[in-house]
Design brief:
Layout: H1 16-22, H2 25-28, H3 32-48, H4 54-73, H5 85-97, H6 99-102, H7 110-146, E1 151-156, E2 159-165, H8 166-191, E3 193-194, H9 210-216, E4 221-222, H10 226-231, H11 234-260, E5 268-269, H12 288-311, H13 325-349, E6 351-352, H14 354-362, H15 368-377, H16 382-399, H17 408-414, H18 422-425, H19 428-434, H20 443-469
Parallel strand pairs: 3-4
Antiparallel strand pairs: 1-2, 5-6
Helix pairs in contact: 3-4, 3-7, 3-9, 4-5, 7-8, 7-13, 7-20, 8-11, 8-20, 11-12, 11-13, 12-13, 15-16
């Protein structure tokens, strides 16, 4: 005879290897708070609807709070034979309070129970990720303000292209993170739907009150279709999608961080606290954290691919395959939270080598476009001006000069339109200042971007605060 809580129709105990294979307690135990909060709300609803007595409800709630205290103290022993967090808690509850504990699962299935726990857990973790995105956005803004006048080469094809403000470069990542924040806010909306009451797949014969449970758990919406409620994992796929895009952004920043702190660039120096050394080469200062974030991006993308592949072939409603939704999203949550937290520290701790960046934009031809634009403003068609500028670069390369080194006679040989004001026109500071189109790299435009960033962060903070207020705290 099976000893499982679901084992009434079985005549044999489950093979130990099968127990190990199908058990999820090793990873889903992190949802203990959500499971207990959901069970308290469910028990309260059962009592309100007259399905269980007030006395049984009080015993259940008291027992669940005792279990919560045990788990948080580290004195609760999880049993793999009980498969998951739900069965572990229910078995301990029944052992503690007797028959009343066996009434908790009335009008509920593990299918809608696990869906509820996962919705609540993802909803909570989205708030944590949003707060970390906000902190990294602040770190980007702080660093941009700290080095507000620093000019660096802007790149295309990893070749020097045009001078830009270092702050402008950082604010590009701020813009990426603002989209990341918006995506996670969208994930929160899709996670903020209450599945409990769907039963195994078809609802229940008991006169339950799903609206009451939704209010107890601060859900904005309730699933209108019981099959969808227990089989929907869109919000998990959306979380993993948002997490993957976020990690791609951090990976791009990591790649630039690795390049910039190399001897070949020497644009920045990372804090010693965020680097490691070599076991053989004593001179090494390795940007391991940036490399790890870049590497861990593949893990998160892999979890998204795994989840999409798992769900793509499943018939309605619940299938055991859906147990695979948790390990990937849990690992993605941990990875994203670490990566965001550590990058905020890296940004705040790094030193920017303004002198090296300035030298880089004075010893290259990234002002060639500005030379062409100068001729256009003097009346020359752009295509002709482009050709003249290219000829100037070619001449400088042959003469081992930079554009700033050309004499006025040399400029006049290239075009009679050149005058003394060409020297100011191709200075890096002028090149930056003149790119004053909306969203450009000019001092004025970057100042506007910083103002917009401050306003956006204030708006994001309000959204996150509202979401955080909805979190359930079992007392």
């Amino acid at each position: 005879m099976s000893t499982k809580l679901w084992g009434g129709r079985f005549t044999k105990t489950t093979d130990e290897m099968i127990n190990e294979f199908q058990a999820s307690i090793g990873f889903d135990k992190r949802m203990y708070h959500e499971d207990i909060a959901g069970s308290i709300a469910h028990a309260s609803m059962l009592a309100k609807c007259g399905i269980i007595s007030d006395e049984d409800c009080a015993a259940i709630v008291g027992g669940l709070k005792d279990i919560l205290a045990q788990i948080e103290k580290g004195t609760f022993s999880f049993d793999v034979a009980l498969e998951d967090i739900h069965m572990n808690i229910e078995k301990r509850l029944t052992d503690a309070i007797g028959e009343a504990g066996g009434r908790l699962h009335t009008a509920r299935s593990r299918n809608d129970q696990v869906a509820l726990d996962t919705h609540m857990y993802v909803r909570k973790q989205v708030v944590e990720v949003e707060k970390l995105i906000l902190d990294m956005q602040r770190a980007l803004v702080e660093t941009a303000q700290k080095y507000g006048d620093v000019i660096m080469p802007g790149y295309t094809h990893l070749q020097r292209a045009q001078p830009i403000l270092f702050a402008h470069h950082l604010l590009a990542y701020f813009a990426m993170l603002s989209r990341d924040y918006a995506r996670f806010a969208g994930v929160y909306e899709r996670a903020d739907i209450m599945p409990l009451g769907a039963g195994a797949l078809a609802g229940t014969t008991f006169p339950i009150d799903r609206e009451f449970v939704a209010r107890q758990l601060n859900f904005a919406h309730i699933y209108g279709n019981s099959l969808d409620a227990v089989s929907d994992r869109d919000y998990i796929m959306e979380f993993l999608s948002a997490a993957s895009i976020l990690m791609v952004h951090l990976s791009r920043l990591s790649e630039e961080t690795v390049l910039w702190c190399s001897r070949e660039f020497s644009f920045i120096e990372l804090d010693d606290a965020h680097c490691t050394g070599s076991s053989m080469m004593p001179q090494k200062k390795n940007p391991d954290v940036s490399e790890l974030v870049r590497g861990k991006t593949g893990r998160v993308i892999g979890h998204l691919m795994a989840m999409l592949t798992t769900v793509k072939g499943l018939p309605l409603a619940y299938n055991k395959d859906l147990q695979e939704d948790k390990e990937g999203v849990f690992d993605a949550i941990d990875t994203v939270k670490f990566s965001l937290a550590v990058y905020a520290q890296i940004l705040r701790g790094m030193k920017v080598r303004a002198d090296v960046m300035k030298k880089a934009v004075t010893e290259d031809f990234s002002n060639a476009t500005d030379l062409a634009d100068y001729l256009v403003r003097k009346g020359m068609p752009f295509r002709q001006a482009h050709a003249v500028s290219g000829q100037a670069v070619h001449y400088c390369i042959e003469q081992h000069k930079w554009l700033e080194d050309l004499t006025m006679d040399e400029f006049k040989t290239l075009s009679p339109l050149f005058a003394e004001d060409i020297r100011d026109a191709i200075r890096p500071e002028t090149c930056v200042k003149n790119r004053n189109s909306l969203g450009g790299t000019s001092y004025e435009q970057v100042a506007r971007q910083l103002e917009a960033a401050a306003a956006l962060m204030e708006s994001e903070q309000k959204i996150t605060a509202q979401q955080e207020e909805k979190q359930i705290d079992v007392k």
